[in-house]
Design a protein that fits this description.
The protein has about 270 residues and is of the alpha/beta class. It has helices spanning about 5-15, 50-55, 80-90, 100-105, 110-120, 145-155, 180-185, 200-210, 220, 225-235, and strands at about 1-5, 25-30, 35, 40-45, 60-65, 95-100, 120-125, 135-140, 160, 170-175, 190-195, 210-215, 240-245.
Amino acid sequence: MKTVHEILNYLWTVAPEEGKEPWDNVGHLVGRRNAEVDHILVSLDITMPVIQEAAEKGAQLIVSHHPLIWDTYKHVTDSVFQQDKVLTLAEHKIAAICMHTNLDEAEDGVDDTLVETLGLTPECHLAEGTIGHVSTLPEPMALQDFLCVVKEKLHANGLRYCDSGRPVHRIATGCGSCGEYLADAVKAGCDTFITGDVKYSVMIDALGQGINLIDAGHYPTENPIVAKLQRKLQAQFPEIHVEIAENIAQPDQFLSESPDFSKKPCDSKEIVIK
């Protein structure tokens, strides 16, 4: 039976450790390195529901994109939310491996998978030394039509965007939270930039510089890597059952006037302002 350490060594070939940012925390973060594994759960995040799912299914390892541990702990108790997750993993003898910024920039990693999921063909990187790509559509497309395509392909709950009044043709993409690369998208001659976690000030700057900016969300722009990781791990370790966690979804929701709602939330009661 394969061990946590053997699975970690394979994942280093998928996303080499030297690709991580200096502030990041990646690799084997919880559990015994020689623990045997016959069941892996793959998830974007290690949340308490994901841990509970792993325990119920008998998984000995969770492989996630976002790190479980960020801080240096002087103690580990259940009085601190993040530490409680570490304790719960240990109590159930579940190990955790996290591949973060090294997986973002790896070949066939998070950023490449975003471009692939959107059906785009990357021409070049957005800027030297950064994640992000530049692609060009065969023909320009109206922004509203393109927004529908993005929402559908990324299975996003909703989109935030600013409309510069230009059709979509040359597109910059950046997974997760890449609003800081707006200037690079403008410099690359892009009319549209897709990323997540966009600040208000970046939206203002995008309008001022005449570029469409689409905030598709952190989860939707990164979650496609989960299915790819599951396939890679299953192919490499056919004797191990590898599955995608079910108890996780995009955490941010959007109020909608869509006909899909049998009752509009704002119609449920009168709001009185005194």
